[in-house]
Amino acid sequence: MISVRPNAAFTRSGVSRLALAAALAAVLGACAQQPRPDVTGSIPSAPAGMSESAWRKQAESLADRYQKEPGNVSVAIAYARALRETGQRSQAAAVLQQTSIRNPKDKTVLGAYGRALADAGRFSEAFDILGKAHTPDQPDWRILNAQGAVLDQLGRHAEAQRYYQTALGIEPNDPSVLSNLGLSYALSKNLDRAEEALRKAAADPRAEPKVRQNLGVVLALRSKFEEAERVTSGVLPPDQARSNVAYVRELMREPAAPSKSNKLQKTASAG
Asked: Is residue 2 part of a domain?
């Protein structure tokens, strides 16, 4: 999840970065528990919607294989993903670091390692590694998307948006890229363009449920509360959708006290 530094109090006519971060934390709070697609092609493949207990069993099984076959790239990537899915982010990065040392030119390994570093909050390192996972003459739109997400984490939103646009030039209308672009626009306080990008992403049948949640955040930040509730109720239980929208409404009604700002920043960073 995107983390930002607390900013000045906001009014009805403007939304602070703190408000956006807190809203993202509220609406996307469950994102850490949701399986993320691994575009590096981990082996063995993992069914969508695996439970945490299933991921833990897979991690235990793959740990044995990794110990026996430390040079097996597919096993290492699969093991690292299972570790990430069970919250063992630093260990996942360590596994892929060793794999990248053994395979310094393997772009699949470097891509997985860069994502693992980002997942562990090591954003500057992640950006450097991801830059080695593809080349200007053979750009990978998935890597460009990941680089954009890292730049957003670093607060470099204008640069991030250029990476997303380049990715869309290779893979037009991809909903995951459009969703990231929309959130980046929102962090830049450009809610018009944020809504436009997220509506387009959410309308794509390939879009994951979290894309509609992201759209709901931006709609709520634009005071379109009823529509935000309708959009998110399709992917969240109705009571949770109402609760999330009410939370954003409350954020927009009252300036955050310094103590609350620190708490919200911590919450946003933990996702």
From this structure: no
Which helix or strand (DSSP H or E) is residue 220 part of?
helix 209-221
Q: What is the CATH number of the domain that holds 118?
A: 1.25.40.10
Q: Which long-range contacts (CB under 8 A, 24 or more apart) does 32-38 make?
A: 32/1, 32/87, 32/270, 32/271, 34/210, 35/85, 36/84, 36/85, 38/77, 38/81, 38/112
Q: Helix count (H) and strand count (E) of the chain?
A: 14, 0
pTM of the model: 0.77
* Whole-number Å distance between alpha carbons of 62 and 234: 36
- Is residue 61 domain-resident? yes
What is the Cα–Cα distance from 101 to 104, expressed in whole angstroms? 5
Q: Is residue 102 part of a domain?
A: yes
Q: Is the pLDDT of residue 80 over 70?
A: yes
Domain total of the chain? 1
Give the residue-averaged pLDDT of 185-189.
91
Summary mean pLDDT of the chain: 79
